[in-house]
């Protein structure tokens, strides 16, 4: 269906694709896997016309084609669904689908024709999407179906999907995979860019593995395993499960009682992101929070960290027996509350600052890092070198700006700084988002080690498998409320998925 031959692409001094060759058979689901920076997204963006290769050629249906912009790809029957949906919230499903390819003339749009075609496509694939529904009223899973319909409306024969299950519940993933299998039966060709090896083994027919801008393997899915794929991706054996003994919970470190946090429109008291939440976190345990993103997890963590306007927070937060009300983020940090934010660029790093400067953020004003207005340069260098060495930050150059690091190494720098506090309570949101499989293994080990050292950990992750493996107790949230508590050692993903969507278990 499509073949990339000897594709090379540079961005300045960075070689993103180095004479790569990828061939995808028609009527198959083909997975492309690799660590961050391996070059997989770059290769697919070249196939879709976002980027133009420096050298090499693209063949579609066996013929060399000049794809220099998305318009060229669409004309050849190639569509792409991005990880972050490109939909207009205030428009209907049908309006979003035809945007840029409106039916009718320049004076009058034939929207009835568009709606009829959307209904026909939806019925053919069992998508169950209402053409007249507004995007802002749809779930994430339904919005993804709209993105699929948008590509199919333009007669796509080949669909490129970038991290398609990143924000779906387990039930939505199963429904989505059923749709992909149906599309394959209808003759469509699908390429999936993903890091979830279990899903790769479940859905794909063949896998291309990339590392450091090169293709290092191409295997049939039924002839490989997660361990082999991980080894190809990283270049060594990788531990694919979390090794941890039983928790030894101690005293209650954090207690939340009837906690509510305002969200959009909260100044008028109209909307709460978190509503009447109560729970405890003890020393020596990891309490996980599972839920579809956007159900109050971020607001909950930031409220505890002191990053939310106090006027929007009600209820009681008690840390080590003393209320947190009235304490700002700095005072909470001084008491031993560390925070690894979900958005490391906005909340965790100053990207233009050096690794040294980022390594002391939050302690830059107090001993031993500072005395009065003077920075202790020797202590700064010691602290930074220790974080770089213990958390394997690469490249190990403390003078580099944080922007120069890959996402995984930026995350390790943030984690190292927060561990250095040292924390009595660690608030950690999306600890491995955008992180390579090798770094995921490393971060998981560090979190378990911190728990075993007696720290209380409150963990939020959109990766259900991750939060189940790491947590000693698991809270499930839905629409800002705790829908239930489960034992991650015995719970199944179906029950958790039901709680995540507000449905009844069983």
Concise summary:
The chain has 506 residues and is an alpha/beta fold. The chain folds into two domains: 2-234, Rossmann fold, CATH 3.40.50; 252-348 and 420-500, P-loop containing nucleotide triphosphate hydrolases (Rossmann fold, 3-Layer(aba) Sandwich), CATH 3.40.50. The protein has helices at residues 40-48, 70-75, 93-98, 111-125, 140-153, 170-185, 197-203, 226-234, 297-305, 329-334, 344-348, 355-359, 377-390, 407-419, 437-452, 464-470, 493-500; strands at residues 2-11, 14-24, 29-34, 55-60, 63-65, 78-81, 158-162, 189-193, 206-211, 214-220, 252-262, 272-282, 286-290, 313-319, 322-323, 337-340, 370-371, 374-375, 425-429, 456-460, 473-478, 481-486.
CATH architecture descriptor text of the largest domain: 3-Layer(aba) Sandwich
Average pLDDT for all residues: 90
Shape: globular
Number of helical regions: 17
Weakly predicted, low-confidence segments: 265-270
Which CATH top level class of the largest domain fits?
Answer: Alpha Beta
Number of beta-strand segments = 22
Distance between the terminal alpha carbons, to the nearest Å?
43 Å
Determine the fraction of residues in helical runs and give it as a percent range. 25-40%
CATH topology of the largest domain, which one? Answer: Rossmann fold
Strand content bin:
25-35%
Query: Which structural class do you get from the secondary structure elements?
Result: alpha/beta
Radius of gyration: 24 Å
What is the count of structural domains? 2
CATH homologous superfamily heading of the largest domain = P-loop containing nucleotide triphosphate hydrolases
Record the strand order, biggest sheet.
6-7-8-3-9-10
Biggest sheet features: 6 strands, mixed
């Amino acid at each position: 269906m499509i073949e990339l031959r000897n594709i090379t692409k540079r961005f300045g001094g960075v070689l993103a694709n180095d004479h790569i060759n990828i061939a995808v058979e028609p009527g198959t689901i083909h997975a492309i896997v690799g660590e961050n920076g391996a070059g997989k997204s770059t290769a697919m963006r070249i196939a879709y016309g976002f980027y133009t290769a420096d050298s090499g050629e693209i063949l579609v249906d066996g013929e060399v084609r000049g794809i220099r912009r998305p318009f060229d790809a669409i004309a050849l029957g190639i569509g792409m669904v991005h990880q972050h949906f490109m939909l207009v919230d205030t428009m209907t499903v049908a309006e979003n689908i035809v945007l840029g390819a409106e039916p009718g003339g320049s004076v009058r749009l034939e929207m009835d024709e568009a709606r009829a075609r959307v209904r026909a496509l939806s019925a053919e694939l069992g998508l169950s999407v209402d053409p007249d529904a507004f995007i802002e009223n749809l779930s994430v899973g339904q919005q993804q179906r709209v993105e699929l319909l948008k590509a199919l409306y333009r007669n796509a024969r080949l669909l490129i999907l970038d991290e398609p299950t990143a924000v779906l519940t387990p039930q939505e993933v199963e429904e989505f995979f059923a749709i992909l299998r149906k599309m394959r039966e209808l003759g469509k060709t699908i390429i999936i860019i993903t890091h979830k090896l279990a899903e790769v083994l479940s859905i794909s027919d063949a896998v291309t593995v990339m590392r450091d801008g090169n293709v290092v393997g191409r295997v049939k899915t039924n002839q490989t395993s997660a361990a082999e794929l991980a080894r190809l991706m990283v270049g060594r054996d990788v531990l694919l499960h979390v090794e941890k003994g039983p928790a030894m919970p101690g005293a209650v470190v954090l207690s939340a009682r009837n906690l509510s946090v305002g969200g959009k429109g909260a100044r008028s008291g109209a909307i709460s992101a978190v509503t009447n939440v109560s729970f405890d976190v003890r020393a020596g345990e990891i309490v996980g929070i599972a839920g579809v993103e956007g159900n109050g997890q971020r607001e909950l963590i930031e409220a505890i960290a002191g990053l939310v306007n106090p006027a929007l927070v009600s209820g009681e937060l008690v840390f080590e027996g003393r209320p947190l009300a009235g304490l700002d983020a700095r005072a909470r940090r001084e008491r031993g509350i560390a925070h690894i934010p979900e958005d490391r660029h906005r909340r965790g790093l100053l990207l233009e600052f050096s690794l040294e400067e980022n390594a002391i953020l939050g302690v830059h004003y107090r001993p031993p890092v500072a005395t009065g207005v003077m920075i202790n340069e020797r202590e700064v260098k010691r602290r930074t070198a220790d974080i770089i060495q213990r958390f394997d930050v690469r490249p190990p150059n403390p003078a580099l700006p944080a922007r120069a690091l890959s996402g995984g190494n930026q995350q390790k720098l943030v984690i190292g700084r927060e561990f250095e506090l040292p924390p009595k309570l660690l608030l950690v949101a999306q600890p491995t988002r955008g992180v390579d499989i090798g770094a995921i293994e490393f971060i998981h080990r560090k979190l378990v080690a911190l728990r075993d050292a007696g720290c209380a950990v409150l963990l939020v992750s959109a990766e259900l498998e991750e939060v189940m493996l790491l947590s000693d107790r698991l809270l499930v949230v839905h629409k800002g409320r705790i829908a239930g508590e489960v034992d991650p050692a015995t719970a199944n993903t179906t029950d958790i998925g039901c709680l995540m969507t507000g449905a009844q278990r069983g």
